[in-house]
Amino acid sequence: MNPFETHGAISWHEYLAADIPLALNFYSELLGWTTSDMPTTDGEVYKLLHSGSKRVGGLMACPPGVPPCWTYYVTVSDIQKLLGENELDLILPLQDTPVGPFAGFRDPQGASLFVIQYHDGSEEDEQTITSTQEAFLTHGAFAWFELQTAAPKAAADWYSKLFGWTINEQQMPGGNYWVISVGDTQIGGIMESVDPNVPSNWNCYVTVDDVDAIQAKAAELGATITAPAFDVPEVGRLLHISNPAGAALAFATWLPMPE
User: Fold this and answer.
1) Whether residue 250 sits in one domain with residue 145
2) Which residues 6+ apart lie within 8 Å of 59 measured at CB?
3) Is there a domain that residue 259 lies in?
4) Alpha-carbon distances, residue 138 vs 52, 135, 207 (angstroms)
5) Alpha carbons 169 and 184: distance in angstroms, whole number
6) 80-90 pLDDT, tens per residue?
7) Are residues 148 and 216 in the same domain?
8) Cα separation of 49 and 163, whole Å?
9) How far is CA 199 from the centre of its chain?
10) By CB neighbour count within 10 A (0-12 exposed, 13-18 middle, 19+ buried), where does 116 fall?
11) Of all helices (H) and strands (E), which one includes residue 248?
């Protein structure tokens, strides 16, 4: 599945940084990410993030008034139609870029997400991670997306109508979990918020070879460990942190995937 061509796939992961050099140093030290520069039409430079030979995301300066955070983009086949047929609470109106038009919105529970329609020519290349299995096996790759919300069933119904996602409720050790699929590919899940005081939010699990080593390194680099490494049966060992600027991200050392 090419995420840049598949409607409903989460295709891009972008960090909005208050201090770009500090952010690059943190994630380079933590995950071994490297960067390359992509010039923009306004004369600025956009930082592409790489894990080994794979391109995993981007980094740019925070817009005024926006705190440091990770943002995620969903590919759509017709962004004008999606925005025209749905009354979305836009946080960023539709605008065009050399890559394609995009917009940002808040869902009814308040979680933010972006949508993008790529221009023709955004084809996969040797740097594109093209399958869930590859993301689960690649250190430093974004592998699993998760919405935590006070109203998971309502969120599942809303997103299934918006993107055409197939969302199936499953019993998990910690309670019910709604698994999101695009076609035959599972891409993420929805769960009830662990802390009712934390607003609804999208987060992502980044694959790492050793989650306990990541926890130790993150603490050394000044991150806050918001959920120390813990085991989930039949899934793997997971970790949640906030970086020194307060932006949340999760990590996982996955158990072997079934053949």
Assistant:
1) yes
2) 14, 15, 17, 20, 23, 24, 35, 46, 47, 49
3) no
4) 9, 5, 6
5) 16
6) 999 999 999 99
7) yes
8) 27
9) 17
10) buried
11) strand 248-254
- 5 lies in a domain? no
Domain ranges, residue 110: 10-116
Residues of the chain where predicted confidence (pLDDT) is lower than 50: none
Tokens of 204: 């992502």
* pLDDT number for residue 125: 63
The whole-number pLDDT of residue 131 equals 75
Query: How confident is the model at residue 128, as a pLDDT?
Result: 77
Q: What is the pTM of this model?
A: 0.93
DSSP 122: -
Domain identity same for 56 and 92: yes
- Structure confidence at residue 20 (pLDDT): 94
Residues ≥6 apart with Cβ < 8 Å to 23 = 15, 17, 59, 68, 243, 245
Does some domain include residue 213? yes
Give the pLDDT confidence score for residue 237 in this predicted structure: 97
Last residue of a domain, one of 116, 149, 176: 116
DSSP state for residue 66 in the 8-state scheme: P
Q: Which pLDDT score is estimated for 258?
A: 54
What whole-number distance in Å separates Cα of residue 34 and Cα of residue 2?
Answer: 23
Do 188 and 156 share a structural domain? yes
In a domain, 222, yes or no: yes
Cβ-count burial 182-207 (b if 16+ within 10 Å, e if not):
beebebbbbbbbeeeeeebbbbbbbb
Q: For tokens 């250190």, what's the residue?
A: 139
